[in-house]
Amino acid sequence: MHRLTDSDRAAYARDGYLCLEAWLSDDWVDRLSAVADRFVDRSRALTESTADILLGPGHSAEHPILRRIPQTVAFDPLFEDFGLRGPVVDLAEDLLGPDVRFHHSKLNFKSGGGGEEIRWHQDIPFWPHSNYGPLTIGVYLCDVDADMAPMGVYAGSHRETLHTLRDADGAWTGALSDAEAARLEPARLRWLSGPRGTVTVHNCRVVHGSRANTSPRMRPLLLHTYAPCDAIPLTRIMDPVKFANVIVRGRSPAYARFDAEPCPMPPDWGAGEYSSIFSVQQEKLG
Length: 286
Known about the structure:
By secondary structure, the protein is an alpha+beta fold. The protein has six helices and twelve strands.
């Protein structure tokens, strides 16, 4: 089922992102939110992160602070159904073509009262592929206004510089340097707020990030990354993760497609060594 207009597709090609207000049905949002709430309730009994719940600084039973549920499709049947067979897969197919591979998913909570900043970055240096087709689809599970740290994107940045996400000494930081960020054009920054069920789409090369959430409200954002099947993963980052890199539409390609521009590579984390962008950026940049 194709759910985008020609104008939507043209906007994605031009700007590298879409923001589709209240695109997902209330029924889906209600059910996904109920599952997310169960993870929050489970976290109250935790004092350290587990495989399926990554805690944030200051977490307690009275005030749960979650950074992320990684690879949501691996930890709950509804999340699995949504990420591998739900309407977001239709959306991915509409933008990527008939052969679609699921790469990974996560639910970023961005807790209220200071949920952590995500510094400006591009996704593809975290998990390089043979071409730049991969995209990420986000779903806001609650109303997100300007005070709740909505995701920000720089329109058109997917057609410009590929950043290494390393500092001047070559050390991996997972973020643009201050000098690189200073060269971004403020006029092209778009903050993607919207009511619950709003869906965001951004290409793997788009520069994006979000501020700290200083509101008292949690901002859960459910994210799924898909790739055209001829975009072949070049690292082992998702090797041990259930459902990573499974084909959800179409068939396996006869050939890999390689874009001419080389892709910056991340550290060789090895299988299962990477945790989250939160820990990478906080550890390297504070």
